[in-house]
Recover the amino acids of this structure.
């Protein structure tokens, strides 16, 4: 069927060898650079903000969630590495899906990755603006309130102030700033104007850096990573001295269900490692270095997150950590505000590095989709001087910068996690379709572990561990919640996969990747699934009105 026409790996390799547009990108990245790019993307807003809300729900046991998420991403990373060693081309999961499942699935993955990169960066830009404004306040610099926040957030802040005043609270300077800010905001067409100008400016600057060149971006990312690793190391050394082990008891105050509430926040922090694969054509030796960069960055970041989670929950009681800046908060509470200031500087730099990596990733996916005819040709244009996908980089910047002016960051984290988990599932499943190599020249090969008996036994263990959820779901079968429905759908999917693994002797690692990512997806709220469905419907509409008839494979098949 033409909807599932595939690009063969050999055809991609021949195209890369013969087509000059593939050689037009600068090949400057080494294994160290790729590892640093992974750390730059993973150690960002997650460690400076969302780790607090995850710890609030899960208690000290949130460190287990980082382990679970790292294992899940580890399975996916090994599958990405297998593909990267065979298909050293830009495009990430989109390219891998094209070779495994065909064009329609590849398009769906490419479209969903926009959620991961472009739309996800809106939240990062808004987070950066918040850190930056806090930093300016600490230095005594105050930008006009209406230039630092969107209208929805400003309205919510004013409502909370009015509620506090009505309850008898005294007006603090921060509350007065909100009141004055709402009163002094300019009127445009009868409406108060609020825009997040710092978020817009930082995206514009990062886009300019990504446009100028990969070498400049690499140097900037490496410098930012070194700085934030030094700060995080300093925070850990200082924080360990103030740990009270009583705060670690109980370790799972809200049981394992509470730990899993932080899935979206924690997983969002991890997704950056897959951005490494988008730079394949700018690597000196992609088949060797891409797998190493992915795995090294994942291991380093996992260790950092686990230690930080234990230090935070050891310094203060987990119930105090539902704040926007948990790292700074715990040191401020101990009277060490100067450390909080250093953390604020590091948070600004950390989120800047995340913006940079994601602004590098999205244009390269679009460039690859454009080469295949699924997007207009302009998206594959490479700048003759800077050797970057220039048009795609500018469009990515506009898609992030303009919404960051006006939109609140709600929903974005969950939407980004859905898009990424979906891509991970396709990549892991795609590995199972790869043909066996006739030689052993491949520079990275994922180890084969027969899942014939292990996966069915894992499924039996899953039923035993979650027997209460099964009982509850079946007891409410006629009136079950969305969460219960999603759980039963996963259980059915896992049963089918277990049977297929037993029959076909599937490899354990990719099967675990599919199962773990699928389970994490059911923990995401239904409202986010609704918006994801709307997004995918829009993508399918574009595919059938433009991409299907303009696909290069369509023209090949007609010849």
């Amino acid at each position: 069927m033409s909807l599932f026409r595939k690009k063969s790996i050999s055809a991609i390799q021949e195209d890369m060898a013969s087509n000059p547009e593939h050689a037009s990108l600068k090949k400057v990245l080494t294994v160290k650079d790729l590892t640093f790019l992974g750390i730059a993307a993973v150690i960002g807003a997650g460690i400076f903000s969302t780790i607090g809300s995850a710890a609030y729900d899960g208690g000290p046991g949130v460190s287990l969630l980082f382990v679970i998420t790292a294992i899940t991403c580890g399975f996916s990373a090994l599958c990405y590495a297998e593909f990267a060693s065979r298909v050293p081309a830009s495009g990430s999961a989109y390219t891998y899906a094209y070779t495994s499942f065909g064009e329609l699935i590849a398009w769906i993955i490419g479209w969903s990755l926009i959620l991961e990169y472009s739309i996800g960066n809106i939240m990062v830009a808004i987070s950066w603006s918040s850190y930056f404004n806090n930093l300016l306040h600490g230095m005594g610099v105050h930008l006009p309130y209406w230039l630092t926040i969107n209208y929805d957030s400003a309205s919510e802040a004013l409502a909370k102030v009015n509620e506090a005043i009505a309850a008898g609270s005294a007006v603090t300077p921060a509350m007065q700033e909100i009141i004055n800010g709402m009163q002094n905001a300019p009127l445009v067409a009868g409406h108060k104007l609020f825009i997040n100008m710092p978020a817009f400016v930082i995206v514009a600057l990062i886009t300019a850096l990504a446009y100028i060149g990969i070498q400049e971006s690499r140097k900037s990312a490496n410098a930012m990573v070194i700085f934030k690793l030094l700060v995080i190391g300093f925070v850990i050394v200082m924080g360990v001295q103030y740990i009270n082990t009583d705060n670690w008891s109980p370790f799972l105050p809200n049981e394992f269900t509470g730990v899993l509430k932080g899935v979206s926040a924690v997983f969002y922090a991890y997704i950056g490692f897959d951005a490494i694969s988008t730079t394949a054509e700018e690597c000196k030796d992609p088949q060797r270095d891409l797998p190493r960069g992915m795995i090294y960055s994942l291991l380093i970041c996992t260790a950092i997150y686990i230690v930080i989670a234990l230090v935070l929950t050891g310094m203060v009681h987990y119930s105090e950590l539902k704040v926007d800046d948990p790292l700074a908060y715990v040191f401020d509470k101990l009277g060490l505000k100067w450390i909080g200031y250093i953390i604020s500087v590091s948070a600004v730099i950390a989120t800047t590095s995340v913006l940079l990596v994601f602004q590098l990733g999205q244009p390269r996916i679009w460039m690859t989709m454009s080469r295949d005819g699924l997007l207009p040709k302009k998206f594959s244009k490479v700048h003759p001087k800077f050797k970057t996908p220039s048009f795609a980089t500018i469009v990515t910047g506009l898609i992030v910068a303009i919404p960051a002016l006006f939109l609140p960051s709600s929903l974005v984290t969950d939407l980004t996690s859905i898009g990424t988990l979906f891509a991970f599932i396709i990549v892991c499943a795609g590995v199972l379709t790869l043909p066996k190599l006739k030689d052993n020249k491949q520079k990275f090969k994922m180890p084969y572990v027969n899942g014939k008996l292990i996966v069915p036994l894992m499924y039996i263990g899953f039923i035993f561990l979650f027997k209460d959820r099964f009982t509850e779901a079946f007891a409410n079968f006629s009136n079950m919640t969305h969460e219960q429905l999603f759980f039963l759908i996963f259980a059915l999917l896992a049963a089918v996969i277990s049977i297929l693994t037993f029959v076909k002797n599937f490899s354990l690692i990719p099967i675990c990747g599919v199962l773990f990512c699928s389970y994490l997806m059911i923990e995401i709220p239904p409202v986010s699934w609704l918006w994801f469905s709307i997004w995918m419907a829009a993508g399918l509409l574009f595919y059938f009105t433009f991409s299907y008839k303009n696909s290069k494979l369509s023209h090949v098949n007609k010849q």
Q: What stands out?
A: The mean pLDDT is 83. The two ends are 16 Å apart (CA to CA).
